[in-house]
Amino acid sequence: MAIIDKIKAKAKANVMHIVLPEGDEPRTVQAAQKIVEQGLAKLTLLGDPAKVQAVAEQTGTKLDGIEIIDPATSDKCAGYAATLYELRKAKGMTEEKAAATVKDPMYYGIMMVKAGEADGLVSGAIHSTGDMLRPALQIIKSKPGIKTVSSCFLMESPNKQYGDDGIMIFADCAVNIDPDAEALANIALGAADSTRSLAGIEPRVAMLSFSTKGSAKHDVVTKVQEATRMAHEMAPDLMLDGELQLDAALVEKVGQLKAPGSQVAGKANTLVFPSLEAGNIGYKLVQRLGNAEAYGPILQGIAKPCNDLSRGCSVDDIVATVAITAAQAQG
User: Fold this and answer.
1) What pLDDT shows up at residue 75?
2) pLDDT reading at 129 higher than 80
3) Kind of pairing, strands 306-308 and 120-123?
4) What is the chain's alpha carbon radius of gyration, rounded to the nearest angstrom?
5) Helix segments in 175-311, DSSP class H
6) Rounded to an integer, what distance in angstroms lies between the CA atom of residue 95 and that of residue 144?
7) pLDDT of residue 228
8) Can you tell me whether residue 152 is helix, strand or coil?
9) How far apart, in whole angstroms, are the C-alpha atoms of residue 200 and residue 198?
10) What is the reported pTM?
11) Please, where in the chain does CATH 3.40.50.10750 lie?
């Protein structure tokens, strides 16, 4: 069974409530019907109900059993605005600005998640990553003990000898450009949580570099070494090792040679890249040249699940991301 099918089965087993702020976007409307028909989530679409229904008619979509809320007229706005003002007044938020801000579907959706009236949010078909991340970081913030919100890709390779039967987590591939050692340690912990919650496997985390166990000397190597030390202090029971070259992390013979005695070397299923540049290039190489499925970017380290879509996403991409978000919401 493909990993996305396992995630969908998990989502169906304990249905979560997901809010979609882009409620009148055609792909989102079409995905909503599929999500409800498949029993993956309870849904709320945000937008003018007349516009949402018009898009549904244009696309031949049924919205039976799907809640539609117009943030511009919702009676929840006053309460959301009061909460937003208290959260952000030290940053210059005024009561008037808060009242206007919560009528933006993105902020309204984030406030639903903050208030516990939805379990997660998916957006990005017509919004940039920054438009989604900004309110999420301002309002929901990071998990306790995690200082860095990051991203991962859930990878499924047809080459089953790597990871766990071809399943791996790659991080960070979309958010933090040049993380320092502390941020990299937080990314590692977030990636480990993603491996457990999404793939359902115990993480074996490799802190990647162009050096293995001091084979090269450079400031960027030192950063990964320091991040490894900090991650061990933060999660002493986590199977994590570094710094490791990619072949030492994935190939058993190379791992035994370069890092003998390591619990991770040669059998890593969670790869933490030293920079966004490396991570983004790495996942795309595996996806394009290795014919792997790549699901993401999936946000990790945030207190409640909120996930971004590519603006080039398909209907099926939205369905998959909602299933992933629902699985994250189950904890």
Assistant:
1) 93
2) no
3) parallel
4) 21
5) 181-194, 219-234, 246-250, 252-258, 276-289
6) 28
7) 97
8) strand
9) 6
10) 0.87
11) 150-294
Mean pLDDT, the chain, whole residue set: 93
In one-letter notation, the amino acid at residue 293 is E
The third-level CATH classification (topology) of the domain covering 3-141+302-329 is Rossmann fold (3.40.50)
Tens digit of each residue's pLDDT (9 = 90 or more) over 130-164: 788 889 988 998 888 888 899 999 999 998 999 99
At 150, give phi and psi (nearest 5°): -140, -165
Q: Does residue 131 have a cis peptide bond before it, meaning omega lies within 30 degrees of 0?
A: no
Is residue 331 scored above 90 in pLDDT? no
Tell me which residue has tokens 């997660």: 120
Supply the DSSP string of 71-124, one letter for each residue. Answer: TTT-TTHHHHHHHHHHHHGGGT--HHHHHHHTTSHHHHHHHHHHTTSSSEEEE-
Tens-place pLDDT, residues 187-215: 999 999 999 988 989 999 999 999 999 89
Report the pLDDT value the prediction gives residue 278, as an integer from 0 to 100.
96
Best CATH choice for the domain 150-294 from the list 3.40.640.10, 3.40.720.10, 3.90.830.10, 3.40.50.10750: 3.40.50.10750
The span from the CA of 224 to the CA of 272, in Å, is 10
Q: Where in the chain is the domain with CATH 3.40.50.10950?
A: 3-141+302-329
Backbone angles phi, psi at 241, to 5 degrees: -150, 155
| CA distance linking residue 267 with residue 205, whole number of Å | 9
